[in-house]
Design goal:
single chain; 373 residues; alpha/beta; Rossmann fold; Dihydrodipicolinate Reductase, domain 2; 6-stranded parallel β-sheet; binds nicotinamide-adenine-dinucleotide
Amino acid sequence: MRETLGVALVGKRAGAFIAGFSATPGVRIVAVCERDASARDALGTRAGVSAEARYSDYGRMLADARPDAVAIGTPMDLHAEQSIIALGMGIHALCEVTAAVTINECRVLASTAQRAALSGVQYMLAENACFRRELVLVRALASSGRFGRLYYAEGEYLHDVKHLHRNADGTPTWRATWQVGKRGATYATHSLGPVLDWFGPDSRVETVACHGTGVWTDPGLPHDDSCLMICNLANGGLVRIRLDMMSNRPEGASWYQVQGTLGVYEAARGSAPHPVVWFGENAPDPKGSRRWGSLWDHEEALPGWMTGPLAQAATSAGHGGGDFWVAHTFADAILKGTPVPIGIDRALAYTVPGLVSEASIEAGGTPLRVPVI
Ligand SMILES: NC(=O)c1ccc[n+]([C@@H]2O[C@H](COP(=O)([O-])OP(=O)(O)OC[C@H]3O[C@@H](n4cnc5c(N)ncnc54)[C@H](O)[C@@H]3O)[C@@H](O)[C@H]2O)c1
């Protein structure tokens, strides 16, 4: 237990966590760190941080401001390095997705996080999709057996972000290298994270096969417009992940489905604007029938922390409340000395399959074993 937690925000995206940190008693944002001067000032002002506590250099910020925790929202290729530096200094780290961009980085991050844990210092992956109200409700229904034994699920991340691949002067951004500068499911955790958790808190992908459509809309980049990652889980389930950051589409969309022996859930999509569930006649569900029903008829299954006094504040924060709960649950766990909800093992369970998929797609879709790190 500790009374206070001083947090530093790193990279402008970490501003998404301000609402969740501000709603957690004992948390104070003590510094911000941003390379870009105008983004730094905007972030500092939003976070209520004085001019002296606004840094451009990460190492200097850590040494001068000595935060208890960092929230990292910088480009993907900096995630592992910045997390490792913080953890090595005894500073808790909350880091945006994905956890790392190579398998080797995953190994170093894992060993550093395991060493830090010996002195109570924690790492958490900021996978906000795992905190979306709808997906938390599906997880609660799955864990209480309402869908029966799960054996199939799907997750899709369809988001035309071509405008983020190049700067105004035409030079490539970090996304052009780390998200679409190679083939494979390079940004799969938003889809895989929540889906994997429905299969249980220790579920993991055992093998991955990855296939792509080829390049259609931006011949300047090698990334397939759509790619599919087929995952066989160690506990027997089959999961299909689709990643598409290139295709011409009207708006960003995430889609999910799960099938069990007793029931099924399908997220809203396109012309079907409401999430639905169906529980079969043998399901332990008095509302069972042969018709789809609204997922929201089962809201009583939501965990208490999501329906309590912070619910309103969470709803008005970003990504359907996901950003709020990421920050709040991280800070709350550190203050209470309890395990964070997405620790290093889950972070790697979400991240490593995507990295292995890069080799699979290059090998023509060959199924490859996902190492346990
Ligand atoms: N979870 C989500 O829903 C979600 C949404 C958007 C972005 N992201 C993640 O957030 C991260 C940032 O994405 P973005 O869209 O904000 O990228 P961006 O390119 O718009 O911004 C990155 C920022 O990091 C700053 N930066 C770069 N190096 C830095 C350093 N060493 N120290 C401090 N600041 C540094 C840059 O100046 C820039 O302002 C990525 O990992 C991305 O995947 C997650």
